[in-house]
Amino acid sequence: MDHFHGDTFNNFMVLKPKEVSLFDLIHLLYTGDVCANKAVDCPDDTDKIHSMWRRWALVVSLWVQMVLLTFETPLAMLGSAIEHWINCFYMSGSSFKTLFANILKGKSCPNKDSSNFRSVIGILDKRIDLDSRIKPDNGNYHAHLSIMAAKLAYENENAIKTIVTDNWKMEFLRYFNCWNEYEREASTQAFMFCDKPVDTNLVVVAFCGTKPFNALMWCTDIDFSWYEISGKGKIHGGFMKALGLQKKTGWPKEINHHNKHLYAYYAIREKLREVLNQNKNAKFLVTGHSLGGALAILFPSILALHEEDDLLKRLEGVYTFGQPRVGDHDFGKFVKGFLDEPKKRYFRFVYGNDMVPRIPFDDKTLLFKHIDDCLYYNSLYRGKVLKDQPNKNYFSLWTLVPKYFTAIIEFIRSFVIGYVKGPDYSEGWLLKFARVFALIIPGLTPHCPQDYVNCTRLGTPVVPHDKSN
């Protein structure tokens, strides 16, 4: 057992893919003795895992992380090359002839840190303007603003600042590039903005989600490690590490702010305090897509753990899109205890067959549970409130045919939606290609922000029960 875990948490299970060997995987699968396996860190008195299904889940998680870490560099290089050439293509007016002419003339493509450079996520859905029909007094405004901010969080700092300032006519406050102490890398990004520079009413914190070609982020998503906080429940270890969990001290209320690294939770909390202290009537939203959604719900949870009541009183809401499960049943009760009072403030959006909200699995093996109801939208963008999304664990033979049928419908829809709903909803060639890929693996393409943006613009309005009424 590593001392920095044992000194902070009494109960935990941490997977260590960087130290695992094939022998460790075989040993774990056939014995279940986690204490005697160097691929797992846990208390010395942890019982053997008798469930074969649970052993398989841990072994698969470790193995996939091993593969991702092995290909971390080439995957990043591939992603960088794809983004570079697609940006060059769009800079050339989507003309291959102009692209080749620019190459021959030596014209450079946009720098990856420039304001007009777009990530793969930004290219899949090129919309950057807010829907002018959805005004601040519209009941759907916060949801729409949140998904647009969550989508924008995938971009570089200059692009974010330009769009917030020039397109949204709002006030950019800060970009956060934060350190993950376990990965030894700045792999967590977020940004903060407000509706206006003076007499601010609303502050928004948006966390970046899983970048398609970032192996470390994918490892975070499929890491089934967990930590138990006494009286609060078990929480997904990968997401806590991304938010700023400290190796030696866990979640201290304060850390040394002279540290050369920024840690997401502490840096964002400090800036939020500053802004809210200057604007006594302002409230704040927290949002994120995918991994960003997990961080968005964990952020106020750690505020509650630290009894930051003054901040929590000014929390207007948490909006997550395609968010994975982050903890067990006890953790869910803890979160609902402060987010459901004085009114419902947590809104979890799930679109169609999106695979990510259905992991880690909700069963007796891994014990992960979603915290509250979901706002579920189908392929026609018709929404309803459900206890959990249909086919809650994704892998089910009973839903195999409906999933592929829906993927076909979405592929056909991609060619006609622009004509039916207007050019703002047209899907580009890259997203159409992704729809083809969904005919093989139906759960990945529905995870793209495009459909979540459409849910807030075209979807049936879904107003969850408000306990304050």
TrEMBL record:
Q: Which residues form the Fungal lipase-type domain?
A: 204-362
The Gene Ontology terms for molecular function here are: triacylglycerol lipase activity
| Stored Gene3D superfamilies | alpha/beta hydrolase
CDD domains assigned: Lipase_3
Domain of life of the organism in this record?
Eukaryota
Q: Name one GO biological process term.
A: lipid metabolic process
Q: Which PANTHER family match?
A: ALPHA/BETA-HYDROLASES SUPERFAMILY PROTEIN (PTHR46086), ALPHA_BETA-HYDROLASES SUPERFAMILY PROTEIN (PTHR46086:SF4)
The identity of this protein, by name, is: Fungal lipase-type domain-containing protein
Organism in which the protein naturally occurs: Rhynchospora tenuis
